[in-house]
Design a protein that fits this description.
This protein is mainly beta. Strands 5, 8, 9, 11, 12 and 14 form a 6-stranded mixed β-sheet that branches. It has a 5-stranded antiparallel β-sheet with strand order 6-7-15-10-13, with no helix packed on it. It starts with a strand and ends with a strand. A hairpin with a 4-residue loop joins strand 11 (108-113) and strand 12 (118-123). It has helices at residues 11-21, 46-55; strands at residues 2-4, 29-33, 38-42, 61-63, 65-66, 68-74, 78-85, 89-90, 94-95, 99-104, 108-113, 118-123, 129-131, 136-141, 147-154. The protein folds into 2 domains: 2-63, 2-Layer Sandwich (Alpha-Beta Plaits); 65-154, Jelly Rolls (Sandwich), CATH 2.60.120. The chain contains 2 helices and 15 strands. It binds nickel (II) ion (NI). Nickel (II) ion (NI) binds at residues 94, 96, 137, 139.
Length: 157
């Protein structure tokens, strides 16, 4: 995962952040890019990594790429979109305008963020679930493997 740390400016920052991240369980690689103001970390949980950078005295935010959306069908009754999440990608915050069904086409874990919560939800290939219109969240893959599902929006109810 990459983290944007706008206040990084010097070798002191690199050392302070690296020292804190070294103590986070599961972290296997740390790269601090002073020019890009980006910290790239392999391993460890995002929440623990954000806390460690905060402990070092810096504000950090996750820097994810965009998940890929492939619309497969829209006949006015249903809209079918395949979402593919390579590691470190997200949908971006969105509000669902329709009831919808999610059909996972991979196993994996997704991070579901709302304004004030973050939770990791396992998905299982072929095990569908339904959610109602009005759901507001960001869906991300903070894991190490690509995760994908097909979303079926019910436009007619
Ligand atoms: Ni959603």
């Amino acid at each position: 995962m990459m983290y944007s740390v706008p206040e990084i400016s010097c070798e002191h920052c690199v050392n302070a952040i690296t020292a804190e991240l070294d103590q986070v369980p599961g972290v296997t690689s740390i790269d601090v890019d002073v020019d890009a103001k980006l910290v790239t970390v392999i391993g460890g949980e995002s929440i623990a990594i954000l806390r460690a950078i905060d402990e070092a005295g810096y504000d950090a935010s996750r820097q994810r790429g965009a998940a890929a959306a492939e619309q497969q069908l829209d006949d006015g009754v249903v809209r079918v979109t395949k979402w593919t999440f390579p590691p470190g990608t997200e949908t971006g915050p969105h509000v669902h305008a329709f009831d919808y069904v999610v059909v996972p086409v991979t196993d994996g874990e997704l991070t579901i963020e709302t304004d004030d919560t973050s939770a990791v939800a396992p998905i299982t290939i072929g095990v569908s679930y339904q959610r109602g219109k009005g759901v507001a969240h960001n869906v991300a893959n903070d894991g190490d493997t690509t995760v994908a599902f097909v979303e079926v929006e019910l436009l007619d109810r």
